[in-house]
Amino acid sequence: MAVEEGAAQVVGSLLTVGERVVGLARKRGADAADLLASRSTDFEVKVAEGEIVTLTQAITKGLGLRVFVGGRLGFCTTSDFGDDSLEHAVNKAIELARESAVDEHNGLAPAAVGRRDASPELELYDPSIPALPAETKITWAHELERAARAADPRVTRFRDSGVASGEAVSVLVTSAGVVRTMQSTGISLWCNPIAVHDGELQTEVWFDSRTHLADLEAVESVGKTAGRRAARMLGAKPVKTQRVPVIFEPAQAAGLLSGMLPAIDGDMVHKRASFLADALGTGIANPGLSLIDDPLLQRGVGSAPFDAEGLPTQRRAIIDHGRLTTFLYDSYTARKTGNAPTASARRSWASLPCAGPFNLHVAAGPDDPEAIVRRSERALIVTRGLGRGLNTVSGEYSRGANGLWVEHGEVVHPVQEVTIAGEFLTMLKGIDRIGADLEFRGAAGAPTLRVAEMMVSGS
Amino acid sequence: MPDTLTSLVPISVIEKLIAAALSKGGDFAEVYLERSRLNSAALEEQKIRTATHSVSLGLGVRVVVGTEVGYAYSDDLDVAALTDAALVAAAIAKGGKPHPPVRVAKGALPDRYPVAVVPDDVLTRAKVELLLRGDRAAHGHDKRISQVIGSFVDLTKEILVANSEGVLAEDRQVMCRLSFTAIADDGKGDRRSGFHGGGGRVPFSYYDQTLTPEAAATEAARMAVAQLGAVSAPAGPQVVVLAPGWSGILLHEAVGHGLEADFIRKGTSLYAGKLGTKVASELVTVVDNAELAHRRGSINIDDEGGVAGEKVLIEKGVLKGYMVDRLAAKGMGIAATGSGRRESYQHAPMPRMTNTYMTAGDDTPEEILASVAHGLYCRAFGGGQVDIANGNFVFEVREGYLIEHGKLTRPVKNATLIGVGPEALQKVTMVGNDFALDPGIGSCGKDGQSVPVGVGMPTVRMDGITVGGTDGG
After folding, report:
1. What pLDDT band is residue A2 in, cutting at 50, 70 and 90?
2. Is the domain of A49 the same as that of A108?
3. Is B67 close to A51, i.e. CB distance below 8 A?
4. How far apart are CA A434 and CA A452, in angstroms?
């Protein structure tokens, strides 16, 4: 944790290590190799009831080396960049490759040779985040709590509230001469208050997460929203078991659609371990629904101009007006399944690449979110889910829910101890209202969605 | 064998780091040094797809002032970098008196999971062979098995904890986990998955006798095939019978998390202030036990250097105790129970479970099943989750059957069960004499930190648990 180096200097030293390791791997017998190396500086303060719960700071680094030896794959990671450790990592990766099976589809992605740096136009790095003093962030954490208390007198206890921030530099180096570099920043706020009344406890979390300080929801607003949301859950009870429309708040709607990710992973589809295995090109959702992955979203938390194998990324609709248009592939699964790679390889230094989205979101629709509620004769608004929900092999959905009960277009009481269930394809086709209120909190986003009918299990 | 931890960071340096951590005041400082060697092998499409090796090495420093905590960590073990980390953690204390120098010394520790050869030293070829054997067995089990995915993961983790109270403790925590997922496909659009696996802090020879790869993979295949043709699960409150073993996840979610003392201290758990009161049916006794030999959740010492033991949480329905780490012990004026755990050196510890289970009752599983006219039998489970404040918990049924007139009839589609902790445990009406622990595959997540745990339970009947199916009857 020496004096903080400049970002350009960090890129330079990671590239030096990366090129050395990849060169060494070739020398030791790898036909090809690639490596992702990162270094990040992280800060987190958590407070509760006016006290600091933990104040954590650290600088960490690591690299993951992938080698191909005679069509076999080996992988090794290390956070120690000393000579002996790097040597050990290379030898171990090659030794492990010998234990794997030959697979003709193994290999590097066909990325353009040469160096590319993430373009400044994407605006993934905000210098005001590393410059933010620890004292300011500690003050904000306390302010989150004060704002939550001020929102409702029944907000009297706290799990925690906090601020996390950091910056990261990562480089990709391949034996084919592909070099990619990226620098990014991030800052998050969260508040997790407990509202207490007559021995009943209800909690809620509200948060925001951005790459730029200027985009972050105001501290006061995050705290106040958290407090208000916790307090409105007091008095929650189950409803009778029945079929009703279910309205998903934006964050819940984003979670609902993200839950199907394993089912659109080209690898799972190939293994026929996905309920969508035969659905490509068919209508799987209401024609008003589009599910987009946009890696090039300016200032996006999940944005990157190239994937983890160096291929250039592009915006793509996974569901285009109700029709399933593509699965996601990294270069290996694309080759194996005879598809073009979708530049969807994601990896941290500690993991092998696999296919995934960057900024996955549901496109905004035409409906006023308040009108969706107002025009529902009877409905459950889901404000928080419990458990996993979707079985991506069978396509069945069943999940615990907290929420609000609507009668004649008005919220009449909070709800807990119920589950919502249905066949996921029926649910997607049954999405009959799409809000205009698309919002991102982190890398995933969605507007308010209404599913025309689901089974709500309660009393 | 690689170097010992104390050859990487000598005791004299650790003592200096504790002094640096307390150089700005503070009540307590702790150094946690960890080295993990993780190996994995993955099988898919009847071939070994990947074999990986990861080494993680780092040191965390914690400084406590009152109940406020400063934490810093470093993956660079250079003395200057470590001293910087200690000073960063020290900044939580603003201008107190420096602490006098500390000498640390080892005490006697239990040895609950001795293994002659650590899994990191077992040849990759032997691990790969387990996967290939399991794959053959699963495919051989039934023609409708269309896909088998196998995984073997082992961890050899060494930890050293030293603190300003003179504690010095070291432990070597090994872990093996073999698992298989099988997909059954009837060729008509019905696709079902089955999962089975097991392990713990066991020697590699565990897979020669106790759990062969054939047994694990065949069980995954059996589970997948058994669910083909599943009918919709009922919706609404039902009589539910839980199979022994993995169903202990019910306790983990319904009561376990709510009895972790950080939530109790801050009054954020619905179990706060309920010590000595009835929170479950008198048939229910729940224990958290770190001492079980070779179990996945067992530990010799917790990640604060304290000896972890057996804690009775609920005795015959009455709340008896909490799981307490140092910080909560100090804040609440009660004894720590050796429950401070952390995912890695990058995390401060907090109260966690180890092996949490319900003890056996008097009923035979046959009697329990025969007593149910209409209900749901839950044989295998996925994950679960709990809301500590309102006590709502869920757990997923991965393999379930309708009970009709005391007999298992048709398989039902996966469904989530939901309940409120204390109310749900009041609904326990029969407890079996067939206590079993889970096979050793569970991990528990809390505040972004994952730790290995165990659960256990006999066959249990519960009256009126809400089942999240789609069949409204």
Report:
1. very low
2. yes
3. yes
4. 11
Structure tokens at B78: 């250079």
Contact B450, B296 (CB under 8 A): no
Domain shared by A203 and A285, yes or no: no
Distance to chain A for B167, nearest Cα, Å: 22
CA A387, CA A236: separation in Å to the nearest integer? 19
Q: What is the pLDDT of residues B313-358, one digit of tens each?
A: 999 999 999 999 999 999 999 999 999 999 999 999 999 999 999 9
Tell me which DSSP letter residue A100 carries.
S
Residues A274 and A362 in one domain: yes
pTM for this predicted structure = 0.95
Each residue of A206-216: pLDDT tens digit?
A: 999 999 999 99
Domain of A305 in residue numbering reads as 236-459
Q: How confident is the model at residue A5 (pLDDT cuts 50, 70, 90)?
A: low
pLDDT at B116: 94
Q: Which of A242, A205, A243 is nearest to A225 (CA)?
A: A205
Contact A275, B191 (CB under 8 A): yes
From A229, A261, A285, give the residue that closes a domain: A229
Flag whether residue B413 sits within 8 Å of chain A, measured between CB atoms: yes
| Alpha carbon separation from B409 to A396, B229, B401, B405 (Å, rounded) | 21, 12, 6, 9
- Alpha helix locations (H) across B162-294? 206-209, 213-226, 249-251, 261-265
Please count the other Cβ atoms lying within 10 Å of the Cβ belonging to residue A217.
16
In this structure, the answer to whether residues A217 and A117 fall within a common structural domain is: yes
Residue A133 has φ and ψ, to the nearest 5°, of -70, 145
Question: Which site among B59, B268, B269, B378 would you substitute to test the A interface, given the most A Cβ atoms closer than 10 Å to its Cβ?
Answer: B268
Mean pLDDT of A25-43: 97
**Domain total of chain A:** 2
State how far the Cα of B350 lies from the Cα of B451, in Å rounded to an integer. Answer: 11
Q: Does B277 touch chain A (CB under 8 A)?
A: no
Whether A1 maps to a domain, the answer reads no
Nearest alpha-carbon partner for A420 in A365, A394, A392, A383: A383
The answer to whether B450 contacts chain A (CB < 8 Å) is no
Same domain, A95 and A172: yes
Joined together, the tokens standing for residue B157 give 């983790």
Q: Is the pLDDT of residue A6 over 80?
A: no
Same domain, A23 and A106: yes
The closest CB to that of A455, out of B192, B235, B268, belongs to: B235
Which of B106, B103, B78, B82 lies closest to B21 in space, CA to CA? B82
- ipTM for the predicted complex comes to 0.93
Out of A229, A256, A275, pick the residue that ends a domain.
Answer: A229
Beta bridge partners of B73: A58, B60
For residues A299 and A156, state if they share a domain: no
